[in-house]
Design goal:
D-Maltodextrin-Binding Protein, domain 2; 10 helices; two-stranded antiparallel sheet; Arc Repressor Mutant, subunit A; 3 domains; eight-stranded mixed sheet; alpha/beta; 324 residues
Amino acid sequence: MTIALPPLNSLRAFEAAARHLSFRKAAEELHVTPAAISHQLKTLEDSLGVELFRRANRRVELTPAARAAASHLHEGFASIFKAVERLREGERSNVLTVSAAPSFAGKWLMPRLHRFVGRFPEIDVRLSARMRSSNSPSRGLAVYVDINDSSLDDADLAIRLGDGEFRGMRVDRLLDLTVAPMASPQLAQGTRALKTPADLQRHTLLHDDRAYFESGRLNWDYWLDAAGVMGIDTSHGVHFSHASLAIDAAVDGLGVVVSVLALAGADLAAGRLILPFELSVPSDFSYYIVCDPVQSNRPAIKAFCDWLLEEAKVATAQPALAST
């Protein structure tokens, strides 16, 4: 069944007047007269058969019905404006919006992005870094995840963590997820040198609260179980909401962190961090490039995807990173 909508101009006049609670300010925003706003609102009230505003002491107030609808109309017009902007950009192959989690964007993508910009100066890259929160079932903590998150967040492509099941999307595996303990050279080789995992008892453990695997365990538990190490209390230490913060804290010598090798690659290569133990543990998850299959052959998207895969191949082929 098709529902007849009131005139769009009347709805837009109502949204502006409801947001400002002023016919005059709504008129200024829409570049019309206050009388025109009043006329549009009267038309809308007649069309809907409801009262929208009441006058009280030189000001206007929303009726309950109008108040309930105002926020939805605001969101609706915001979506319309965004859609129109995307239509205007539609055929502009030189604009590319990329979505990635903050730690991946800062630790892996940003140190390499200059090479893409240098190769494709005609493409304007817009990088959007965001995270979403959820709860850990095992510890009741608010953590940040994007496991199998196929939403693009209005981006042209996204780099997401998952097992490859991104329904309805074009998916390319970018980097496998492998974790290992890391520490600054001064901390790992000082008076409390890290010779064996048992030496971790004398050091502060740094935790990335985003780094939950499917089992709900933190990375320290995950690595210690794989190493067959017992007796290390992982309930204490310093916690961070982003992997990049935990890695930077390890660089500064605050403690030892278990984190993703791909994210710490630049710090390991520069010698700001070392791997005190040989064991690194792979997970069931990887980083994937996710995009709309209909848009995947757009020149800017294809160029960026190809470049990402090239960079990942080079990073994976590098010699073993610094260790003690």
